[in-house]
Amino acid sequence: MRSLRSALTIRLLLGGTLLLGMAGMGFQWRLRKSLVTEFDSGLLVTAHSLQVLIENENGKIRMETEAEGMPEFSHRGGASVYLLHYPDGREIQRSPSLEDFKLEAPAPTSSTPAFSEVTLPDHRRMRCVSLIARVDGGDHKGREKPDTLIPVTLSVGRDIQPLEHTLREIRNALAATGALTLGALVLLLLWGVRRGLAPVGKLVGDISKIDGRSLSTRLDPGRTPSELVPVVDRLNELLARLERTFEREKRFTADVSHELRTPLAELRALAEVNLLAPPASAHENSDCWSEVQSIALRMESLSIHLLDLARAEQPYRIPLREAVDMNALLTRTLERHATSAAAHDITFDVHAREPVTQESDPVLMELILSNLIGNVTHHAVPGSTCTIALERGTLKVCNAVSGLSPADLPHLFDRYWKSDRSRTDGRRLGLGLTLAMQAATLLGGTLEPAFDPQRSILTFILHFQHPASHRDPNPLV
């Protein structure tokens, strides 16, 4: 697994090494250029000094004796040399330090000296300058000077090894300084990266302390670097969703346990009674088994509803896309609930102005309508009329209720919630509206309640939409 700390350290170290190397090379290049320029300036001064000593004596051009007496030119193998010659290459005079070697310096122009580096056969490296000197053609005995001057070339060289030695020492010093700087940079980077990533480590520590019993904990974005604030915000949102989900599952488990405890206790009591005192007559035996059947039906209803709810909450279920005849589906649903509606003296008034065809999942749509109509038949005021309005894109179910207040609306879709437990039979578990809402969400629609407290009219409004092409990848919301 790649380490963020190692990656940052390596990249910063490579970048620092590259910058140090470029800075060192730039500094060395600039220093070498400056030293060579200074060296050339001194060399040019020497050449101009020798140029003044060139004379024409009785038609013979030569260097005055003062030049031969200069120590740097007078010793064989000396550090400085000069060569005086005609432009055609004929030699006029050379310094003793040049011995018999040729000084192959480039020819200068009439106004610009030419600099070059020459290696003599005895391995002396010379930095040379060549310039053109013009010598008066007169004999210097009172006669007038001629109109023409005699051009000669003067080449002066100086050993460059001291300059190279200086540059080498500077280069070594730069290398040593760079190595020390690089070592200090490594330590500084290790310290800086560790300190810079300390908030990440702290965030990891805070997250590791969170478990199923502390989902209410929230990470503090106020003490978090700005780069990590989006991460902290997303984690807090995730923790909030997890907390809601865990609470819902705990409540769901508790409600299921509560709902199953009563029928199981009844079954146990019936079994114990029949074991201790078997039914004395066929009538008593029939009553006992009828009660067992009623309890089993109630438990079966609970299992079916829980299975439907689990299917509706599958996070990656893709609804079907079929043309559903909403008018026919509503008619079949009302017929299926006709017996229950008659038992509670509930009548239905359906308003459907035109045929409505909705592209949807027929199973989920039937689940929604069945639970809405079932809620009416079991919870509407007996003897009342339920109004159903079916339009393109909308279904409204209105019925009169009792014992309901506006404060109860947020709980209508809660699992196992019942506003009046005395008005329900054992098989009404409080899961119907929850199933209807889950199915509507899965279809991409909405199911919303509305309550008129003056007339005690409860209305459920279902807005149709095309089946969602995808679900929210996070089913915890």
Write up what this structure looks like.
With 477 residues, the protein is an alpha+beta fold. It has four domains: 1-52 and 162-196; 54-159, no CATH class; 223-311, Helix Hairpins; 316-463, Heat Shock Protein 90 (2-Layer Sandwich), CATH 3.30.565.10. Helices cover 48% and strands 19% of the residues. A hairpin with a 4-residue loop joins β13 (446-452) and β14 (457-463). α7 (282-312) packs parallel to α11 (432-442) and α10 (362-379) runs antiparallel to α11.
Secondary structure layout:
Blueprint: H1 4-52, E1 54-57, E2 60-63, H2 65-68, H3 71-74, E3 80-85, E4 91-94, E5 114-119, E6 125-136, E7 149-159, H4 161-196, H5 198-208, H6 229-276, H7 282-312, E8 322-325, H8 326-336, H9 338-343, E9 347-352, E10 357-360, H10 362-379, E11 385-391, E12 394-400, H11 432-442, E13 446-452, E14 457-463
Parallel strand pairs: 9-11
Antiparallel strand pairs: 1-2, 3-4, 3-7, 5-6, 6-7, 8-10, 11-12, 12-14, 13-14
Helix pairs in contact: 1-4, 6-7, 7-11, 8-10, 10-11
EC number: 2.7.13.3
Pfam family, one: HisKA
Catalytic activity: ATP + protein L-histidine = ADP + protein N-phospho-L-histidine
Keywords:
single chain; 477 residues; alpha+beta; Helix Hairpins; 4 domains; 5-stranded antiparallel sheet; 5-stranded mixed sheet; 14 strands; 19% strand; rod-shaped; disordered C terminus; HATPase_C_sf
